[in-house]
Amino acid sequence: MTTTFPDVSISTERLVLRPYDDTDIPAHTEMMNDELVVAWTSAPHPYTTAHAEEWVHRAAPTERTSGRGLALAVTEFLTQRLVGAVHLRHTDWRTRSTEIAYITASWARGEGYATESVLAVARWLFREQRFERLELRTAAGNTASQQVAQKIGCLSEGVLRSAWIARAQAEDGTWGETRTDLIVWSLLPEDLEGAGGPHAHAGHPSYPDWN
Question: Tell me: the pLDDT tens digits for 62-114?
């Protein structure tokens, strides 16, 4: 039984989702220091170039080779600029299920890139990898992430009470931790019918011959 994802790139109408490389390090560092990313993720803060190098060179590749998941940089097709990231994690190969997380750079928000990229990965998972379940977990206050889940056709399954630690910024600029609920969403192959908007068409995967 296959227990790792292939070294894949996925193309959509506007985007290319591909493995990280050295060219992504500056933009990834900037993206991870955005205040919304700091608030809703557990990434180190401040996020340094050294953190980005560790992610690009070791952590992201290990996600795939270990079988735990898949980390992809989301880039614009025309400019090749980094607009976000998609991360499959907590993969269960026996049940063919995995969890997805996503981040969008501050300058790229409002363009539908998160919906387009997540939907592309979902279609690839269900059609090419024969997965049966995709799960999302969104903090109760993270309405933007919840909207992505709704747009791609996810169903809300319930609430995990006080299951996450978010960060909030005080008036003096310092960050503190606060507990929050998590909303659990799921997407099954049959839920994809009619999902997505005008930019949600997923193209075809391609398998690079480089690592």
Answer: 999 999 999 999 999 999 999 999 999 999 999 999 999 999 999 999 999 99
Q: Which residues pair with 10 in a beta bridge?
A: 17, 205
Q: What is the pLDDT of residues 112-169, one digit of tens each?
A: 999 999 999 999 999 999 999 999 999 999 999 999 999 999 999 999 999 999 999 9
For the full predicted model, state whether its pTM sits above 0.85: yes
Question: Strand runs (DSSP E) across 124-170, as ranges?
Answer: 133-139, 155-169
**Residue count of the chain:** 211
DSSP three-state, residue 14? coil
CA distance 98 to 187: 10
Query: Residue 107 and residue 86: Cα distance in Å, rounded?
Result: 17
Question: Of 95, 110, 185, which Cα lies nearest the Cα of 146?
Answer: 185
61: which 2 tokens?
Answer: 């590749």
Contact criterion met (CB below 8 Å) for 21 and 86: no
Q: Which two tokens stand for residue 52?
A: 């980005």
Burial class (CB in 10 A: 0-12, 13-18, 19+), 140: middle
Q: What is the DSSP string of 52-84?
A: HHHIIIIIHHHHHHTTS-EEEEEEETTT--EEE
- Spatial distance between the Cα atoms of 45 and 169, rounded to a whole number of angstroms: 12
One-letter identity of residue 124: W
